[in-house]
């Protein structure tokens, strides 16, 4: 795959693991991808010796100021103008040669900074977190949105999420993504009033040929591979995301306990160990990084506990989204909603 020569801006101070994890992951990504160019925002004294071998592929914006996870997002963005998060977003905003910003910092601060510094695509009510999650079908995944940016959503916002994700998937080469609403039942009559209203609106968009809406989907079916996009408000989307991550941790810890319980289990683990690691890398790391869908440029959020391996994964992900021209696709698609739904949009 040919990647953009646009630079990726990396917040090196955000997240639980801080600068060591960010720099280590960045070095690995630079070695893996000769096309990758970075603007690394953080303590130059610590960063420079570790990236000097990459020459002009790496720029450093020096700062030692970080926005902590527990700080109020809006206040922090306004007052900590010399923080790695704000300086990084300013690089993305003002430079045409920068195409994406990556951070493991506070979700609230990254979202607020994206709002204030980058801005929304015209017509977007709220940006949404949209991680890709694995399915039982090899090579197939589904996009979940919103996964935690917006706790309370209107039916109109759920419809916008569906349309934005539809354009994202199409930009990745999927002709007719299958879109579903997360619900407590598959029937149209199930769910609260917001979901039922969104269901009716998405039916109209489907009838107009604008979206391939396949109806409601229950949480226990999302991993089957039957849909490509699952739409929910940020509360229930995040519950699904965190529940699935917690279950994976439970399963792997349980497997370790079983393996350590007997000699025969340890022998079996010798044969399965490599396959389990591959499964975890190929399936479970899918949720590590995602863009805030709906902003004018790509702002990528990593897990707050991202280690070096996940930083590398996030930078590889950023390289894939930087050239999708989502702004050019989403704005006219949202305008079409009004045409189809009229005053109800």
Which CATH C-level class of the largest domain is it?
A: Alpha Beta
State the domain count. Answer: 2
- What do the pLDDT scores average to? 89
Helix content: 40-55%
Name of the CATH superfamily of the largest domain: Isopropylmalate Dehydrogenase
Instruction: Return the CATH topology of the largest domain.
Output: Isopropylmalate Dehydrogenase
Q: In what order do the strands lie side by side in the largest sheet?
A: 3-2-1-4-12-11-5
End-to-end Cα distance:
38 Å
Q: What pattern of helices and strands is seen along the backbone?
A: EHEHEHHEHEEEHEHEEHHEEHH
Can you describe what's shown?
It is a single chain. The chain is α/β, with parallel strands linked by helices and about 350 residues long. The longest helix has 26 residues, at about 235-260. Strands 3-2-1-4-12-11-5 form a seven-stranded mixed sheet, with helices on both faces. Strands 6-7-10-8-9 form a five-stranded mixed sheet, sandwiched between helices. The chain is globular, with a radius of gyration of 21 Å. The chain has two domains: about 1-125 and about 295-325, Isopropylmalate Dehydrogenase, CATH 3.40.718.10; about 130-285, 3-Layer(aba) Sandwich (Isopropylmalate Dehydrogenase), CATH 3.40.718.10. Helix content is about 45%, strand content about 15%.
């Amino acid at each position: 795959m040919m990647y953009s020569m646009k630079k990726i801006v990396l917040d090196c101070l955000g997240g639980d693991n801080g600068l060591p994890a960010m720099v280590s992951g960045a070095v690995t990504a630079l070695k893996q991808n000769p096309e990758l160019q970075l603007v690394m925002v953080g303590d130059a004294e610590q960063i420079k010796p570790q990236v000097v071998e990459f020459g002009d592929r790496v720029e450093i914006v020096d700062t030692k100021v970080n926005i902590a996870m527990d700080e109020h997002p809006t206040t922090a963005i306004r007052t900590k103008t010399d923080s790695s998060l704000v300086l990084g977003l300013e690089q993305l905003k003002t430079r045409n040669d920068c195409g994406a910003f990556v951070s493991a910092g506070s979700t609230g601060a990254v979202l607020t900074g994206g709002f204030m510094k980058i801005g929304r695509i015209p017509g977007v009510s709220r940006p949404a977190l949209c991680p890709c999650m694995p399915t039982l079908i090899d090579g197939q995944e589904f996009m979940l949105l919103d996964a935690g940016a917006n706790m309370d959503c209107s039916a109109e916002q759920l419809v916008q999420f569906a349309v934005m994700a539809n354009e994202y998937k199409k930009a990745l080469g999927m002709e007719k993504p299958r879109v579903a609403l997360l619900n407590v039942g598959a029937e149209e009559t199930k769910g609260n009033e917001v979901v039922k209203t969104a269901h009716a609106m998405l039916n109209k968009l489907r009838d107009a040929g604008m979206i391939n809406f396949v109806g409601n989907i229950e949480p226990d079916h999302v991993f089957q591979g039957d849909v490509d996009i699952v739409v929910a408000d940020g509360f229930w989307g995040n519950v699904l995301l965190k529940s699935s991550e917690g279950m994976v941790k439970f399963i792997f810890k349980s497997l370790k306990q079983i393996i350590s319980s007997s000699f025969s289990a340890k022998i079996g683990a010798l044969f399965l160990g490599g396959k389990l690691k591959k499964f975890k890398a190929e399936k479970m790391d899918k949720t590590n990084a995602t863009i805030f869908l709906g902003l004018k440029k790509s702002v990528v959020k990593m897990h707050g506990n991202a280690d070096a391996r996940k930083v590398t994964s996030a930078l590889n992900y950023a390289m894939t989204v930087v050239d999708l021209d989502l702004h050019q696709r989403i704005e006219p698609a949202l305008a079409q909603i009004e045409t189809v739904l009229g005053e109800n949009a």
